[in-house]
């Protein structure tokens, strides 16, 4: 897996080119990234959110629903990131509803034309949403 990733990961030059090309896209839809969270390890949660923040395609929103996490760091991290970027929206559930109800809670605050799903321990490569928008064009 690591060899494939190293071979296919976009170079900084490719990412700069794609970031520039976004301005030439006739259709630039808002993509809502839905992320359910429950007691995510802090390092994984931060990496997942950072992978969205690092997208070369800027027309996204990250809709995070916390599923009544009992780990104190989760809400702290979510508050920190939502204060850092207005594209990050957070809703906190009062009771655990598991992944489907939690995902639906995140979906309720989404405004995008398209939805992408991201788990709290997943990562997006920096041009993932660009490739979606490019395909839509």
Instruction: Give me the number of helical elements.
Output: 6
Shape annotation: globular
Strand order of the largest sheet: 3-2-1-4
In which range does the helix fraction lie? 40-55%
Q: How many strands?
A: 4
Write down the secondary-structure element order: HHEHEHEHEH
Kindly report the average pLDDT value: 95
How far the N terminus sits from the C terminus, by CA atoms, comes to: 30 Å
Largest sheet: 4 strands, parallel
User: Per DSSP, what share of the residues sits in E-state strands of 2 or more residues?
Assistant: 15-25%
Uncertain runs are none
Q: Which structural category fits the helices and strands?
A: alpha/beta
Question: What is the gyration radius calculated from CA atoms?
Answer: 15 Å
Comma- or semicolon-separated keywords:
single chain; 137 residues; alpha/beta; 4-stranded parallel beta sheet; 17% strand
């Amino acid at each position: 897996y690591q060899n494939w990733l190293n071979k296919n990961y976009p170079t900084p030059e490719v990412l700069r080119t794609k970031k520039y090309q976004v301005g030439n896209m006739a259709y630039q839809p808002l993509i809502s990234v839905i992320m359910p969270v429950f007691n995510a390890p802090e390092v994984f949660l931060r990496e997942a959110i950072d992978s969205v923040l690092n997208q070369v395609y800027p027309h996204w929103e990250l809709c995070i629903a916390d599923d009544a996490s009992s780990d104190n760091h989760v809400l702290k991290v979510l508050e920190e990131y939502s204060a850092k970027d207005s594209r990050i929206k957070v809703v906190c559930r009062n009771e655990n509803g598991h992944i489907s109800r939690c995902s639906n809670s995140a979906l309720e605050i989404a405004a995008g034309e398209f939805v992408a799903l991201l788990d709290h321990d997943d990562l997006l490569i920096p041009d993932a949403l660009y490739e979606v928008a490019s395909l839509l064009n």
